[in-house]
Design goal:
Blueprint lengths: L14 E4 L6 E4 L9 H14 L1 E4 L6 H9 L19 E6 L24 E8 L7 E5 H6 L3 H8 L2 E4 L2 H4 L18 E4 L1 E3 L6 E3 L6 E4 L4 H15 L5 E4 L5 E6 L3 E5 L8 E8 L12 H5 L15
Bound molecules: succinic acid (SIN).
Succinic acid binds next to strand 5 and strand 14.
Length: 309
């Protein structure tokens, strides 16, 4: 299996410690409760593009500061169905304790992939964490795509899949928001391999939370292929596993990762807030992505946004 190792880059205003050869890095030397300078913003954004998920320790943010940090990377997303925090529609409360019957994110998924324009990224800030357990696992969808055989890549590149939410959200007691998406539970058709709009790398884009069927295949064919791909996402070599401490932050790119929140800490408390950043409509471009993977696109500042939002 060859996913191509990540290169270690130079950063001027932050420290970046890669956690595995394919995904995840811990960022230090920055207080994200304060507005980032242009240089620091570029470096954090570059690290996110390269490592796909980045982690910060010992951060202290109010709800407003959390939203302000998120807004530096794009407009904030409002969840189409989950109850939001009162007075803060852009914030999801993440909480589990001895009364919990379920926890958010317990299963491999990419956030709200049922939306026509699924979120680009999510920023989770946990203030109370269990003494042991409650890790979140992240899987690189670049690595998942790159590990497929050439024949399977070609087959999947021509296919789209349906992502739905009613089966998930209804079970959780959520209702579609009347003010959003015409009061319907969101669903969308997306390419199974998507081109990342910034890095131009290709990523597998199906997940066991939302993806229900492959368009144009017989039911048995679709179920069997999806089951293979969901299992492929679980390959340990594609993963980084984050052990939370109080006041840690994880910032992940939903366009090229999936995550799974472990629930091995019942009845302990695990609690915090998530801000989610809006994304664009997934697309597939047949253009070869070997340049993007070779490192030429991975240089510091190589990922500058056209303009900072
Ligand atoms: C989520 O899917 O946003 C929850 C992740 C977590 O609680 O670790």
């Amino acid at each position: 299996m060859n996913q191509g190792c990540l290169k270690i880059m130079d950063y001027e205003t932050i420290s970046v410690k890669p956690l595995t050869a394919v995904i995840g890095a811990e960022i230090g030397g920055v207080d994200i409760s304060q507005p980032l300078s242009n240089q620091t913003f570029t470096e954090v954004h570059d690290a996110l593009m390269l490592y796909q998920v980045v982690f910060f320790r010992d951060q202290h943010m109010s709800l407003e500061q959390h939203k302000t940090f998120g807004r530096q990377f794009g407009e904030l997303h409002v969840h189409p169905s989950s109850p939001n925090l009162e007075g803060h529609p852009e914030i999801l409360k993440i909480h589990a304790d001895e009364n919990s019957k379920r926890v958010a994110g317990h299963g491999w998924h990419s956030d709200v992939s049922c939306d026509t324009e699924p979120p680009m990224g999510s920023i989770l800030y946990l203030t109370d964490t269990p003494e042991i357990g409650g890790d979140t696992m992240f899987s690189s969808m670049y690595a998942a795509y790159e590990a497929l055989s050439p024949a399977m890549k070609v087959f999947l590149e021509g296919l789209s899949a349906e992502h739905a939410s009613e089966h998930l959200y209804h079970r959780q007691g959520f209702q579609p928001r009347d003010d959003l998406r015409d009061g319907e539970f969101p669903h969308a058709i997306h390419p199974m391999i998507r081109t990342h709009p910034v890095t131009r790398r290709k990523a597998l884009y199906v997940n066991s939370g939302f993806t229900r069927r492959i368009v144009g295949l017989e039911r048995k064919e679709s179920e069997t292929l999806l089951e293979f791909l969901f299992d492929h996402v679980r390959t340990p070599e594609f993963h980084v596993r984050f052990a939370w401490e109080d006041n840690s932050v994880a910032f992940w790119d939903n366009r090229c990762t999936q995550h799974h929140a472990l629930w091995d800490y019942f009845p302990q408390v695990r609690s915090g807030f998530r801000v989610t950043i809006r994304g664009d409509k997934p697309f597939y471009s047949a253009q070869d992505d070997s340049d993007a993977r070779s490192g030429s696109a991975l240089r510091l500042s190589g990922y500058g946004l056209k303009s900072r939002p």
